[in-house]
Structures are given as structure tokens and as C-alpha cells.
Write a structure and sequence with these properties.
By secondary structure, this protein is an alpha/beta fold. The protein has 14 helices and 22 strands. The chain has helices spanning 11-15, 35-48, 63-70, 87-92, 94-108, 127-141, 156-159, 163-167, 238-241, 262-275, 289-298, 303-308, 324-338, 358-374; strands spanning 2-4, 19-21, 23-29, 53-59, 81-86, 112-116, 147-153, 170-179, 182-191, 202-207, 210-214, 230-231, 246-247, 251-256, 280-284, 312-316, 342-346, 378-384, 405-414, 417-427, 437-442, 445-451. It is elongated, with a radius of gyration of 28 Å.
């Protein structure tokens, strides 16, 4: 027995490395969840690697019609063998189908087989006879020495009542929730003959490329010494306020009201790193790349030039298109590709479009921070501060306790004039300025001013 890859993006990862061969895997779910696409894509990827594959379809369509439908996907492989059985016939007379299928498999000797769907087979039988037939089918499959995918149209509650669930080695369940922003598709491993699969729900999407799965964020606790290296923020006069700069691998949250310049602080952080050959990523949910370039140019910051040198990468995701797992997978890929050392997330309130539960959002952000540290990045997160009044020590940011550095920006009325003020609330492992600090933003950038008590 050996472990074979599916070749489907993200699938082998959540399976814990692939699928044991031979074995029988049930791909279950309600209509429209993508069961057939997942199964056929697995066959085509295997065929591309030189395996013999067979697609067995219970349908009223012709083989040419099925092949035409499949060819619309980029994963389609012409070497895929297709055999159809009339759907109504297999409901009434599954034994004839089983004999014919056995002869076909004996002739082709495929490495992988997809039976799609298995649930209608013997549907006209009484339940006891249908169960006996399923045992006969599984006994026959056991002689094929192949990876066999079975698709089944069933709800999660039906899954536990089905005899098929008892006799297969693995169960993969697909579901979808059609909401205002489109379909939210999830996949989870309910049962598998390999122990190291990733539990829980993972998101996926379907496109012309086929299915792409985005494993849920999970982190391993890695023992790390607290770095002593300080890195420059790029803001004149700011390093002195925090005793020499941020610690390498630290996480910083810049929180503030609208118009306090949170994004500008982030741009300084990323651009200073790029100037020092520390590649940086800006992940933005609100400002487009063109808008960020405009802001930077007005401050005399060379964002676009550093982009062209591939020292900065801007990833723009409109709020309506945010998929938290897909977003993280994409970031991890870009981090590895460009060897990024700094990252800016602007604004993490964009995750509010994804997580209605603040606890789930907090967990996601915590896992992202851990991933950044494990990958060797110093991170900065931007967030709005919904606290009312002029109390700068009041913050309504649930993730503020997760970060190493917390800086609050706020507008304060002083002698009938609105001033921008900064409070450095915490820096783990370091002393810092405790007084309220005035600052301003003009064409020359961020200007650190006087302490508030001196005004």
C-alpha cells in the first residue's frame, strides 16, 4: 500500500498527504456542492501523471455529451475513460450493472475509478436487499486494487444512516451556504484511513480551473526566543519614543479613528523595510493599489518605485470577495515567493464581512499573527477604534490583547482646535514613552510634535 496524491490544490494538505492506495472514498453532499467536479478532477490529475482512470456515470446522457461538459474545465484530460449506465436501469437492476462493471474493470485495470453517483444504485430495492447489494459492490471493489471514489447525494444526517458510510475507508463531505455574497462552500474530512488529516471545515471554490481548497488556518506552537533585534519604523523621531524601534518578529496594532493617518503609519513601516532590502507585503481591503500609490506620492514616499523593484507587493481584496482561508493561503504563497520580512494588514475590520462571531475573528487574527512570526515576518495590523469620547485609553478592539505593540491614534480638541494625538499603550519587553504625543501629517509626511502636557 502507498499514499498517492490527488493533485487538487489544498486537498492533499487536508488529507494529511494524499490517499492510501487501494482504498474507497465516499464524496458526499447535497446537489450542487461540487462532488462530481472533485471526483473527476482527481481522475484527470491522476491521468496526467500516467495513471489509468475510469469514470463510471449513472445518467441519461451520452458519453460524448459528458465529455463535452467536462472539457470546459482546464483540468480535463482526454485519456479519461468514460462509461455510462442508464440511471433508471441501475435503480431496478443493479446486479446486471455490477457484472458489466466488473468485466470493464478487469479489462481496463484502472488505477482509479469514480462511480458517480452511487446512491441511486438499487434504489428500487427494499432497504435490506439494497444493503446486501452495497456489501456485494464493496466486495467487488476490494478486488480491483484501485483508489475508488464514490459520490453520494445525501445530507450530513443521512450520511450517518447509510450503509455506505460503514464500508468505505474515507468520507469527504461537501456543503454550501448560498447567501447574499454568493456561495460559501466548505469541505471536511469525516473519516479517513490515514490519521494525520486536518479536522474541521475548510473552504473551497469552483472555477474553470476546477476545485481549489483552502485549508483552515492551524498553527503549531513553536518555541521561540524573544528577538532582541530592533527594526526601524521609518518615521522621524518615532523610534526614540519606543526605545529604538519595533522588535523583529513582533506584531503591532495601529488603531484609531477615521482620518488619524493609520494607513500612512503602515506605509512608512513597509517602505522603510523595502529601503533596507526587507521585502514587504501590503494586504488591503479598502484602499486600492492606485490609491495607496497616490497617498505615498503626496508624502514623497517611493512606493511605486519599490514595487517595480519587487521589494513591495500590494494585494487588494475587495470586502465582498474576502475569503479568510483563501486570503491566508495566498499571503503564505507570496511570502515564500518574495522572501517577505514585513507585512501590513489594512484594515482587519474587513474580516467583519466574513466572521459574524467576534470570537472566530479573534481566533483567525491570532493564527495569522502566529503564522507571520513562524515565517519570519514583522507584522503591522490596522484597525478602526470605535471607542467614544476623548479617553485615549479606551479601546474597543477585541484583538488588541493579541499583539506585542498597541498604538492608539485619536483626534483631540485642544483650545478649540482639533489635534492628532498618539498613545503608546504597550510594547512587550520594552520601555516606551508614556505621555500623550501630538503629531501631524502634511506633504512632508508624519511629524512627531510635542507631548500633550507641554501644549
Amino acid at each position: 500500500m502507498e499514499i498517492k496524491l490527488t493533485g487538487i490544490p489544498g486537498f492533499d494538505e487536508i488529507l494529511g498527504g494524499g490517499i492510501l492506495a487501494p482504498s474507497t472514498i465516499l464524496i458526499a453532499g447535497d446537489p450542487g456542492t461540487g462532488r462530481t467536479v472533485l471526483g473527476i478532477q482527481g481522475l484527470c490529475e491522476a491521468a496526467r501523471s500516467g495513471e489509468k482512470v475510469l469514470y463510471v456515470c449513472m445518467t441519461s446522457k451520452s458519453e460524448s455529451s459528458i465529455r463535452e461538459d467536462i472539457s470546459n474545465y482546464d483540468f480535463y484530460e482526454e485519456s479519461l475513460s468514460i462509461h455510462t449506465f442508464n440511471a433508471s436501469s441501475v435503480e431496478r437492476d443493479p446486479l446486471t450493472m455490477l457484472v458489466e462493471l466488473g468485466n470493464l474493470v478487469a479489462s481496463l485495470k484502472p488505477d482509479r475509478v469514480l462511480i458517480d453517483p452511487v446512491t441511486p444504485i438499487g434504489f428500487g430495492f427494499p432497504e435490506a436487499e439494497r444493503r446486501r447489494f452495497m456489501y456485494s459492490l464493496m466486495s467487488a471493489i476490494g478486488e480491483w486494487d484501485a483508489i475508488v471514489y464514490l459520490t453520494g447525494t445525501m445530507s450530513e444526517s443521512d450520511l450517518f444512516k447509510s450503509v455506505i458510510s460503514d464500508v468505505v475507508e474515507g468520507i469527504v463531505y461537501l456543503s454550501q451556504d448560498i447567501g447574499r455574497r454568493g456561495s460559501n462552500r466548505t469541505i471536511k474530512i469525516m473519516k479517513m484511513n490515514l490519521p494525520n488529516y486536518i479536522e474541521g471545515e475548510h473552504t473551497f471554490d469552483i472555477s474553470n480551473d476546477g476545485i481549489s481548497i483552502y485549508p483552515r488556518i492551524s498553527t503549531q506552537l513553536i518555541e521561540q526566543l524573544s528577538p532582541e533585534t530592533r527594526i526601524d519604523t521609518g518615521i522621524p523621531g518615532f523610534n526614540e519614543l519606543i526605545n529604538g524601534g519595533f522588535f523583529e518578529l513582533s506584531s503591532t496594532l495601529i488603531a484609531g479613528n477615521t482620518g488619524t493617518g493609520k494607513t500612512i503609519f503602515g506605509l512608512y513601516f513597509i517602505i522603510e523595510g523595502a529601503r533596507n532590502k526587507e521585502p514587504g507585503i501590503i494586504s488591503t481591503f479598502e484602499d486600492t493599489p492606485a490609491e495607496l500609490r497616490h497617498y505615498a506620492a503626496n508624502l514623497g514616499l517611493e512606493l511605486e518605485e519599490l514595487e517595480q523593484k519587487e521589494l513591495i507587493k500590494i494585494i487588494y481584496t475587495p470586502p465582498s470577495e474576502i475569503n479568510s482561508s483563501r486570503h491566508t493561503v495566498k499571503l503564505k504563497s507570496i511570502i515564500e515567493k518574495m522572501g517577505a520580512k514585513r507585512i501590513l494588514l489594512d484594515d482587519i475590520s474587513g474580516f467583519d464581512y466574513v466572521f459574524s462571531d467576534p470570537v472566530a475573528k479573534r481566533e483567525h487574527v491570532a493564527n495569522m499573527i502566529r503564522i507571520f512570526k513562524d515565517m519570519g515576518l514583522t507584522s503591522m495590523l490596522i484597525s478602526g477604534n470605535r471607542a467614544a469620547g476623548n479617553n485615549v485609553l479606551t479601546s474597543e478592539i477585541p484583538v488588541s490583547s493579541l499583539v506585542d505593540v498597541l498604538i492608539l491614534l485619536k483626534h483631540v480638541e485642544i483650545e478649540k482646535e482639533i489635534k492628532k494625538t498618539m498613545s503608546i499603550i504597550k510594547i512587550h519587553g520594552s520601555d516606551h514613552e508614556k505621555r500623550l504625543i501630538e503629531y501631524s501629517i502634511n506633504s512632508d509626511g508624519i511629524q512627531i510634535g510635542k507631548f500633550l502636557k507641554d501644549l
